[in-house]
Amino acid sequence: MNSALEILAEKLGIATSFLDGSQERKEHLVDEKTIRFFAEKMGYKAGTEEEIQNSILQYDKKRWQQSLEKIYVVDQENVKFDLVIPAEYQTGKFSVLLSPSKQQNYSPVSFEIFNTEEYQLIGKTRYVRLQFVITEHLDIGYYDLELQVENKHYKSLLAICPKTCWQNEALNKKTWGFAIQLYSLRSERNWGVGDFTDLKNFAQMAAKSGADIIGLNPLNVLCHDYPENASPYQSISRMYLNPIYIDVEAMPEFKAEDLAEIKNDIEEFRQSELIQYEHIYPLKVRMLRRCYDRFKQTPNTLRYQEFENYVIAEGSELERLAVFQSLYHKYTQESIGNWRSWPEEYQSPNSLAVKEYAKENVDEINFFKFMQYEASRQFEQAAKAVKDSGMKIGLYRDLAVGVGQDSAEVWSEPELFFKDAGAGAPPDALFPAGQEWALGAFIPSALKETAYKPFIKILRANMHNSGALRIDHVMSLMRLFIISEKLKEGTYIYYNFKDMLNIVALESVLNQCSVVGESIGNVPDGFLDALEAKNIYALSVLWSERYNDGWGDFKMPEAYPPRAFASIGTHDMSPLKMWWFGYDIELSYQLGIIENEEQRNASYKGRENDRWRLLKVLDASGVWPKDKPRQGNYIYGEGYPEGIEEAANAYMAKTTCPVFLAELENILHVEKRQNLPGTDRDKHPNWRRRIPVSLEKLATDIAYIRNIKAISEIRK
Q1: How confident is the model at residue 334 (pLDDT cuts 50, 70, 90)?
Q2: Which end of the chain is more exposed for a tag (fewer CB within 10 A), N or C?
Q3: pTM here?
Q4: What is the spatial distance between Cα 105 and Cα 103, in angstroms, rounded to a whole number?
């Protein structure tokens, strides 16, 4: 590889080689074209040798061209920052003033100055870098910083961070709960898709069963005009909620005659095996708009005042989302989809054309705000019900690793995201072909130039009403695998890991929300140790807690990590019964994911060995139900082991992990998976499976009763 290009790549945090997560831990050398592509997306030309050399000089000069960085993310025990100034000022009289962020209440603080003896000549001016160490105690939080010397004033932001994330006392002992996909909940009252009332009802029932935590899929808003794009990980904004979860009947504006009009449609949706997003969401929107029209006629009510207060509090973030949705709807009607295909004057939220559009379409834009207000109101009610139920941890939300490329987030601040590239993952033990998520990903340097504000806002929005937050693909705090759309090749891009970790810890403490990192896949050496030191819990699933890098025997319960949230699987993995019979292998073969008979047969042979391994660990753990002991070896043809779900749940309950999350799919013998990564709905009905038992019947379902008894007897 070109040596200068390698130097530039190292400075920019572009990996020139990497190990994948497969069993062989194969090394991949990154093509020069891929490195040049990402360097240029980060603002550094790399097409020729001269451009590369100039880019290296450009990078090296950058720190010397600004006095203070936009933000300093520091440990509470070691508050320091550096200043670049003309050397002639280095002996001047300095003062440092701090104010809690946005309060404009500045006070002087004591400090010491250290000369780094680093100098740089830029033009005719000689600059020096000084280091400032604040010598008095400061509480954690964000502080506006003003530094004065002579007649010069410099400003920045200090994020003073705790040593670790917040610790819920309930995590000091073993507890349990459920991991659910809210949309999949079946009830005799919902409209064919789970909603916030279902969440409230399920949580109350689960609490009576002894559960202390409810894990949820990402609840963020999806594309209004393409409800069939149902992946909760392809949000258009991770700040706001999906209106499909609104219980329309719980709105004060909804009337009995409305229900009578659509009763037959709702009944059809309830009976459907799969969620009919293309019909349910438009129906909900039609009824929501009807409710909104009635709502507008009552401007003097407390409810209307609450709406206005909500809009004011949310400010520009909500405004941009609503304008984006309104514009998107307009251009979808004109057969123009992706926002990058819109007329140029509408491709920026700051353009005069967009501002004029917002003035001319206030009512339409307010409707989108109204849907967010109602979703927020109902989610608050569900969260209150969870709290009132006595759950010790409560809601455990899920923060997606990225955002849809065709989203309000990217439209609002496109300079923050890699253009013409999307996040994914290289091959690993569970996904040997790798994954291409095509999600928008932050440019590390651009994110820091915003003082990490977009990242902070997303954390806060998803920690809201949460006792714990799952950070999807938590390795992205350190590095993210990003794939060029044109080259079809990718590499790891590195982020400022220390800053990202510290901000997570700070927001965790400020919001009193524990943090869990989903670290299944290609995990860098030492990464889990760094998470543990920051009190970020790991995520452990049965299918990956195996020796030999996920390919060998299953671990005994006492060998599980003591600081992890455990479950049998995830939404991306096969339920127990599907796994046992190898239905997932056959599905992959039929879809061409398994390419030939030889691979298919090898997969079946491997699964047979894995079934033996599972039986072995269940036997050794002594978890089979007393009235349903293992009856045989269950080779193919002998059927499904009766009681294996109870045994598997009891096995996971025995692990040393402080939290075990049971899944209704495994309790209720579901044979089909919720999501098959690498496929779209034309091949597999991802994100559309409904739980086979309604909430009204769940508490008396014998499988539910037996599994909860098996878990609670161990975790009590």
Answers
A1: confident
A2: C
A3: 0.95
A4: 5
